[in-house]
Amino acid sequence: MTEEAGALAALLDIGRGQTELDRFHSRWSGDRNVLDKWFVLQISHAAPDQTAEVTDRLTRLPAFEWKAQTGSGR
């Protein structure tokens, strides 16, 4: 998965990878941690002028879950 995510990040950096994003999602949608990575990849590698739009679109998907981070010990 790590190599797949790295290759996907490289494609996203050059404005490509939609087909690969779809395949990655299909393959890993059953793993919540990996699906979170799928969301992060798209937002962190979006063009600066598209980041807000990408974030808005992704947070509206049924698979997106807002969750509190835990484990900080506070």
Residues in helices, as a percent range: 55-70%
- SSE topology string: HHHH
User: What's the helix count?
Assistant: 4
Morphology = globular
**Which stretches are low in confidence, meaning pLDDT under 50 for 5 or more residues running?**
none
Strand content range: under 5%
Question: Can you walk through the features of this model?
Answer:
This protein is an all-alpha fold. The protein has one domain (2-54). The chain is built from four helices and no strands. It has helices spanning 2-13, 18-28, 32-44, 51-59. The protein is globular. It starts with a helix and ends in a 15-residue tail after the last helix. The mean pLDDT is 89.
Strand and helix layout:
Blueprint: H1 2-13, H2 18-28, H3 32-44, H4 51-59
Keywords:
mainly alpha, globular, 0% strand
Summed up, what is this model?
By secondary structure, the chain is mainly α. It has helices at residues 2-13, 18-28, 32-44, 51-59. It has one domain (2-54).
